[in-house]
Design goal:
Layout lengths: L1 E2 H11 L6 H17 L10 E2 L17 E4 L4 E5 L9 E16 L2 E2 L5 E14 L8 E8 L5 E10 L1 E13 L6 E26 L1 E2 L3 E2 L6 E14 L5 E4 L16 E4 L2 H4 L3 E4 L2 E4 L2 H12 L3 E6 L2 E2 L3 H5 L4 H17 L6 E4 L9 E2 L2 E2 L5 H18 L4 E7 L2 H13 L6 E7 L5 H14 L8 E8 L11 H4 L1 H17 L3 E4 L10 E2 L2 E2 L1 H10 L4 E5 L8 E7 L5 E7 L12 E8 L5 E9 L16 E9 L5 E7 L3 E9 L6
Parallel strand pairs: 1-2, 14-33, 15-16, 15-27, 16-19, 19-21, 21-24, 24-25, 25-26, 26-27
Antiparallel strand pairs: 3-5, 4-5, 5-11, 6-11, 7-10, 7-11, 8-9, 8-11, 12-13, 14-30, 17-18, 20-23, 22-23, 28-29, 30-31, 31-32, 32-37, 33-36, 34-35, 34-37
Helix pairs in contact: 6-7, 7-8, 9-11, 11-12
């Protein structure tokens, strides 16, 4: 990667630098921005690190060039004793809980640009401040032309003692952004932190299921080969449900193949302790499990949280009553059913301290204590039935995932599946995320075949507002879901579980009305069992597709046009010409189904809540090939189904 600062460094070493450093750098920045902006898509020099002196190799003894300390008397220096690579880093040491920071120089960047950030941080004895986020941190600030902060992106926050660790992320710059700035700091906390090798790269500004530097063509031709089977279709169609959300019967038409019930210990009233006597109540959970099995779906039983009656003992790390409860539950269902393919998942987002929630106590310890909690829990479950699938733990933080997998690996602890949560990330990013989890597990022989499950995910970003509910229920969410599931399939994910069935902000059914996301469950159930090949087509950040067939020849082509909510570029209709070769039939029936702003979208119009067939008919197949044209608008999903019209095989 080319670093702008290497130019300056060479001049500096030759003695030809001017006295006014900032003036020189403004010229370099202007020239770089000029040549990059000529594409019309913002800064697009992908091989250029936009952060000046991000390795801190140039500068005076204590202050690196292009960086400004705000230390208020505390130690804030350019350090030559601790560094990730090269010969220097920047260091902050704070002995009182105050905010102490290093700021980069300003970096020109336009709104809508997607930047990728990578940085290294090391911390020692960082003590969290009054708030949970008062830790060592790395942040990118989005600023307007006058330097006023519009938004920010938290790349990293850590406490305790951690060796050099890499942090990576993507940030879509909000409307009004003209420049950005990196901030490395101790946020109202005490301890020592080092920062090094900070890089920001421009990825482009067209954001769909992946990031592109252009919007792609307005008209695309896509080729499919029905005779070239490339593998099985192992798609999941899971949903999150619990008894307080709504009527179970409403979700039957979606035909989910796996249903997560959570949190069991609170919503289902399984545990009661009165006058020192413990009793278990299974009837409510029995009812929902019977319903799941009647759908031929698999139960995903999420064992959390600790009932309040156990709170004191669990806080004292006495798990006797908890272990007895887990044993009793597994034993109860093992005696009633064949539970060998059920998932027994322990806990939910243990890294987030929430105090008391839903008349239950959530986890309040660190990741190492949590591992002990997990081990004792699965030991109890396996005593009741050693043949069940046990795992967890619904993580929301990769650092906890890494620490947990390492402990399971080093201690040879059973982890039949690893599960975690994601909200609002780009569909394409699921691919790298799942591959990363597989790499973590592959380091340990007994974990290399553990299943990977995203047991809670959705299309909406965290902390979204009521006026943004379209992000979780409309045609936007439908296109997001289909695009994401494609990448999950590509990465080999075992199961995915959409959040959720019927809760108002997120449900596929809300107040009895099917939302646009409901239709995606129906569409996925219409796909065949075998994938057929798709020839590479022009690189388009918005359009994606896959195609399947059944052994009897029925073909289903799924296509999506997804535009990420933060994409500020103007986009419109795309014409998609589908060409399906290798057809066995002389004449075919075709049917096209559509989810978009005006079709199959109960979020926008309750009268349009069912999956709509917008076109059907039959036509001859010319030379074993059939063509079909679609006109799609942003955030739409179409399914074309082709079947024999009765004239027989060629």
């Amino acid at each position: 990667m080319v670093n702008l600062y290497s130019i300056y460094k060479g001049l500096r070493q030759s003695g030809r630098t001017c006295n006014v450093f900032n003036g020189f750098m403004r010229v370099i920045i202007f020239l770089t921005a000029f040549f990059c902006l000529r594409t019309g898509t913002g800064l697009v020099c992908a091989d250029t690190n936009l952060v000046l002196n991000g390795g801190f190799e140039a500068g005076d003894v204590n202050v690196p060039d292009a960086w400004t300390p705000k230390c208020k008397g505390h130690e804030c220096i350019r350090d030559k004793e601790n560094f990730h690579q090269g010969k220097h880093s920047i260091k902050i040491m704070n002995t009182v809980p105050q905010t102490v920071s290093w700021y980069s120089s300003l970096i020109p960047c336009e709104e809508g640009t997607v930047i990728q950030i990578q940085a290294w941080m090391k911390i020692s004895d960082v003590i969290e401040g009054k708030k949970p986020w008062h830790q060592a941190a790395i942040m990118v600030l989005a600023l307007d032309s006058k330097g006023r902060q519009l938004s920010y992106y938290d790349l990293a926050r850590e406490k305790g003692t951690v060796g050099w660790a890499s942090y990576q992320g993507k940030y879509i710059l909000p409307a009004g952004t003209k420049q950005i700035q990196v901030k490395c700091f101790l946020d109202n906390c005490m301890g020592t932190a080092w920062f090094d090798d900070i890089e920001i790269v421009d990825l482009g500004g067209f954001v769909g299921h992946k990031i592109g530097r252009s919007p792609g063509l307005k008209e695309l031709d896509i080729q499919y080969d029905a005779k070239n089977v490339i593998g099985p279709v192992d798609l999941s169609n899971g949903i999150f449900y619990h008894t307080d959300y709504g009527i179970f019967k409403e979700i039957e038409g979606a035909k989910p193949d796996i249903i997560r019930l959570a949190p069991l210990t609170t919503n289902y009233g399984l545990y009661e302790k009165k006058n020192g006597w413990v009793s278990y109540h299974w009837s409510r959970l029995d009812r929902d499990i019977e319903r799941i099995l009647a759908l031929h779906a698999v139960p995903f039983l999420n064992i959390c949280w600790v009932p309040d009656e156990m709170k004191q003992k669990v806080e004292q790390r006495d798990y006797t009553e908890w272990s007895a409860f887990v044993y009793a539950m597994v034993k109860h269902y093992s005696e009633k059913y064949d539970v060998s393919d059920w998932y027994w998942s322990f806990w939910n987002e243990p890294e987030y301290a929430r105090g008391s929630l839903m008349k239950a106590t959530v986890w309040d310890g660190n990741e190492f204590e949590f591992f002990d909690f997990y081990r004792l829990t699965i030991d109890a479950a396996l005593r009741a039935n050693p043949k069940i699938k046990v795992g967890g733990c619904g993580f929301g933080n990769d650092l906890w995932v890494k620490a947990f997998v390492e402990r399971c690996g080093q201690n040879k602890t059973r982890l039949d599946f690893l599960c975690w949560h994601w909200y609002g990330i780009l569909p394409y990013d699921f691919l790298a995320d799942i591959q990363l989890k597989r790499k973590m597990l592959a380091q340990y022989p007994h974990l290399k075949d553990s299943e990977l499950i995203i047991d809670e995910w959705g299309s909406f970003p965290p902390h979204y507002k009521p006026e943004e509910y379209y992000l979780s229920r409309s045609n936007y969410a439908a296109a997001y879901r289909v695009a994401s599931i494609y990448y999950m399939l590509e990465a080999g994910l075992a199961k995915d579980i959409w959040f959720n069935a019927q809760e108002a902000p997120f449900g596929i059914i809300v107040n009895g009305v099917k939302q646009a996301t409901y239709g995606t469950f129906v569409m996925i159930n219409m796909l065949g069992k075998e994938r057929i090949s798709v020839s590479p087509f022009t690189d388009d950040p918005y359009i994606g597709t896959m195609a399947t067939r059944e052994p009897d020849g029925l073909i289903a082509v799924l296509i999506w046009y997804f535009k990420y909510y933060a994409d500020l570029k103007r986009t419109g209709e795309k014409v998609i010409n589908l060409h399906v070769a290798g057809m066995d039939y002389k004449r075919v029936k075709y049917a096209c189904y559509l989810i978009d702003e005006h079709h199959s979208n109960g979020f926008n119009d309750r009268k349009k809540q069912d999956l709509e067939k917008i076109d059907e008919g039959s036509r001859d197949v010319a030379g074993e090939s059939l063509s079909y044209t679609m006109h799609l608008m942003p955030n739409s999903v179409a399914l074309l189904v082709l079947s024999d019209d009765g004239d027989g095989i060629r």
